[in-house]
């Protein structure tokens, strides 16, 4: 893992994964699994962007940005169903916002 955004995303994955395991069974295997699949897919997409040719990096980073937005929506669903503490929601959202900004900055640097 070379890029900071990939490292921060991995740390976020470990935090979220720990909390998914505490969800009630029906939610853990529903929305919990969707969140876990999405964040793992985000990690994969960021790794692809890290090693892709410059032409393909921008597309991978756009895809990663979309995955960040989907993660925000899924976490919002957890908070609205009262399955996640507000403090955790705000912490995860702040991490996702930071990751999104880093991805956006990476994309902008490619356009120059």
Q: How would you describe this protein?
A:
The structure is a single chain. α1 (4-20) packs antiparallel against α4 (86-111), α2 (25-51) runs antiparallel to α3 and α3 packs antiparallel against α4. This protein has helices spanning 4-20, 25-51, 54-80, 86-111. It has a single domain (4-111), classed as de novo design (two linked rop proteins) (Up-down Bundle). The mean pLDDT is 93. The radius of gyration is 14 Å and the shape is elongated. By secondary structure, it is mainly α. 87% of the residues lie in helices and 0% in strands. It is built from four helices and no strands.
Topology:
Layout: H1 4-20, H2 25-51, H3 54-80, H4 86-111
Structure, briefly:
This protein is mainly alpha-helical.
What is the CATH level 1 assignment?
A: Mainly Alpha
- Structural class based on helices, strands and sheet pairing: mainly alpha
Number of strands: 0
Global mean pLDDT: 93
Q: Provide a count of the helices.
A: 4
Q: How would the global form be characterised? A: elongated
Q: How many domain modules? A: 1
Tell me the span between the first and last alpha carbons.
Answer: 24 Å
- CATH superfamily name? 23S rRNA-intervening sequence
CATH topology grouping = de novo design (two linked rop proteins)
Q: H/E series, N to C?
A: HHHH
Task: Estimate the helix proportion, in percent.
Answer: over 70%
Percent strand = under 5%
Main sheet summary: none
Q: What is the radius of gyration?
A: 14 Å
The parts where pLDDT drops under 50 for at least 5 residues are none
CATH architecture: Up-down Bundle
């Amino acid at each position: 893992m070379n890029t900071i955004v990939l490292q921060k995303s991995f740390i976020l994955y470990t935090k979220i994964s720990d909390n998914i395991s505490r969800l009630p069974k029906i939610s853990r295997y529903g929305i919990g699994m969707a969140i876990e699949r999405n964040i793992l897919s985000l990690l994969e997409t960021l790794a692809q962007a890290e090693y892709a040719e410059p032409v393909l990096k921008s597309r991978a980073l756009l895809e990663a940005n979309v995955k960040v937005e989907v993660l925000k929506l899924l976490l919002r669903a957890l908070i609205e169903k009262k399955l996640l503490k507000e403090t955790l929601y705000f912490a995860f959202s702040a991490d996702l916002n930071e990751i999104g900004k880093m991805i956006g900055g990476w994309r902008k640097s490619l356009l120059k």
